[in-house]
Write a sequence for this structure.
């Protein structure tokens, strides 16, 4: 099976087409109605890796802004109100940098002004999940009760507006822990009070996904900007074991968000993936690109470790027109470092991703590099030509 991606632009919309050729090259055209990010045209033309930086929570100074401006993407994690100013400062240094603000969505921290307003309002007691004795669950933050309709409406309007999305310097928002307490991938979210059953988890998750489908539409329609959702669901298309306990699979996630909801997907490339996870992640990213979903490909590093050729090869193998690549050993400024791979020029993709008969070895050609990924041996090769 050969997946051929091409993009057709017109005055009305941007649509992603996928042509699938099987043996006799019978063509099946799939059209995605999802809105695409405005940075597609600039990022898609880059012949180097569109590298991403994430840092904070302390606001950046002149020296750090000069360093961050080398990247193609910046996710500003300071939870205060100065993210738009920080994005503006970056764009004075690099007009093409894609700058997103940041919000935690599983728990509300008081250092975010609009969240603090909600936390300190005694009339909002039903906005939070509760402990078994009925008190508000979470310290120092509060865990959102996404089943509350009043909370949903408030978040879609006021919380989205507070992000500073009106500013021309801001391109979107990174909504972290999108699955939160329902599909936990951080230990703090793995222990909901026992008053919440597995059925309650599912209801809570569905309510949150409906809310953030509205958040996406509000951002795109009102502000012309784009959301990035950090989700834990992956490796769930078949019987391949999930890396984390999660009752939501890939299909249900996309169905509940809706086929017309635009969003970028945060994808973790595990530090030590299995062969099955390698194949499954490549498959899922490919499927999501067909469905019009760009990705932030995040490579987990150990302290002092550099990005491997394997991880870079996988990214180049599956790279879409609006994708980003990031690698770090943590989530503060000192954990993110410019990698030597970011300086290399690979050219543009001239061939489509193909696999051999075993389904383990994948290849793709660029104008200045040949890419090979072997999911059996968990190795990658990048041959610069």
């Amino acid at each position: 099976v050969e997946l051929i991606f091409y993009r057709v632009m017109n005055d009305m919309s941007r649509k992603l087409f996928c042509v699938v050729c099987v043996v006799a090259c019978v063509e099946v055209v799939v059209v995605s109605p999802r809105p695409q990010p405005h940075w597609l045209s600039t990022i898609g033309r880059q012949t180097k890796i569109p590298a991403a930086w994430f840092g904070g929570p302390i606001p950046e100074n002149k020296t750090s802004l000069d360093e961050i401006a080398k990247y193609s993407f910046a996710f500003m994690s300071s939870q205060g109100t100065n993210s738009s100013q920080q994005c503006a400062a970056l764009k004075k240094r690099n007009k093409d940098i894609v700058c997103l603000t940041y919000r935690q969505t599983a728990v509300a921290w008081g250092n975010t002004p609009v969240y603090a307003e909600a936390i300190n309002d005694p009339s909002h007691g039903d906005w939070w999940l509760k402990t078994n004795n009925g008190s508000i669950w979470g310290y120092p933050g509060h865990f959102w009760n996404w089943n509350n309709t009043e909370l949903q409406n408030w978040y879609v309007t006021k919380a989205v507006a507070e992000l500073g999305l009106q500013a021309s310097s801001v391109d979107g928002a990174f909504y972290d822990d999108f699955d939160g307490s329902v599909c936990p991938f951080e230990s703090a979210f793995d222990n909901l009070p026992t008053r919440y059953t597995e059925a309650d988890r599912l209801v809570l998750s569905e309510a949150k996904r409906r809310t953030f489908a509205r958040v996406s539409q509000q951002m795109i329609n009102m502000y012309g900007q784009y959301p990035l959702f950090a989700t834990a669901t992956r490796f769930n298309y078949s019987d391949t074991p999930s890396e984390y306990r999660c009752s939501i699979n890939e299909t249900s996630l996309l169905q509940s968000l809706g086929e017309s909801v635009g969003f970028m997907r945060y994808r973790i490339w595990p530090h030590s993936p299995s062969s099955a996870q390698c194949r499954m992640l490549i498959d899922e990213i490919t499927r999501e690109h067909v469905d019009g979903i760009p990705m932030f490909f995040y490579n987990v590093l150990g302290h002092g470790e550099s990005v491997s050729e394997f991880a870079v090869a996988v990214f180049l193998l599956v790279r879409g027109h609006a994708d980003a690549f990031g690698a770090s050993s943590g989530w503060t400024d000192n954990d993110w470092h410019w990698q030597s791979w970011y300086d290399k020029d690979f050219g543009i993709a001239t061939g489509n991703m193909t696999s051999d008969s075993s389904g383990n070895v994948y290849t793709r050609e660029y104008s200045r590099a040949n890419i090979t990924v072997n999911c059996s041996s968990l190795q990658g090769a990048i041959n610069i030509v």
Remarks:
- Residues 1-30, 184-189, 234-244 have pLDDT under 50 and may be disordered.
- The longest strand covers residues 2-9.
- Residues 43 and 322 are 6 Å apart (CA to CA).
